[in-house]
Write a structure and sequence with these properties.
The structure is a single chain. This protein is mainly beta. It has one helix at 58-66, and strands spanning 2-6, 11-12, 21-24, 33-35, 40-41, 51-55, 78-81, 87-88, 97-100, 113-119, 124-129. The strands form 4 sheets. A 4-stranded antiparallel sheet has the order 4-3-7-9, covered by helices on one side. The longest helix has 9 residues, at 58-66. The relative contact order is 0.21.
């Protein structure tokens, strides 16, 4: 549920622009591109840090969890920082770059059916799960 970005110099997270960061399915000509929608920065991501912790928005998590062609491991997860996604303390904007994933923690939460509703008038069964399902 989070993305951790590490940098070689102090940042200004207060200038971070979610929409200028994307997760890609490949480094060259990605077939899947998920642009971050505003989520939340970790409260410890204050100006001057070298590590930015981004909590992904529910919309981004859904997109990533339902598509098996992205974010299932190091082979299909890349991050693209568009120019000026953030600034360092100089304050200089970052240059555009695409980087491979260095550490991947898979979703290991087992999917559990929490409840169901049967509507005999409509002939529909509604299933409610604890996690996103595809």
């Amino acid at each position: 549920d989070r993305l951790v970005l590490s940098f070689n110099e102090p940042l200004l997270p207060s200038n971070f622009v979610f929409e200028r960061v994307s997760l890609l399915s490949s480094e060259m000509a990605p077939s899947i591109n998920v642009t971050l929608t505003p989520g939340q920065l970790d409260p410890l991501s204050i100006d001057g840090v070298t590590e930015l912790i981004i909590y992904l928005s529910p919309d981004n998590l859904i997109l990533l969890k339902v598509d098996p062609s992205i974010a299932t491991g190091t082979r299909n997860t890349f991050v693209m920082l568009a120019q000026a996604a953030l600034t360092d303390t100089a304050p200089e904007p970052n240059v555009e770059q695409v980087l491979p994933l260095s550490v991947f923690t898979p979703d290991i939460t087992p999917t559990v059916l929490m409840e169901y509703t049967l509507d005999l008038d409509e002939g529909i069964i509604y299933l409610t799960f604890n996690d996103i399902v595809n």
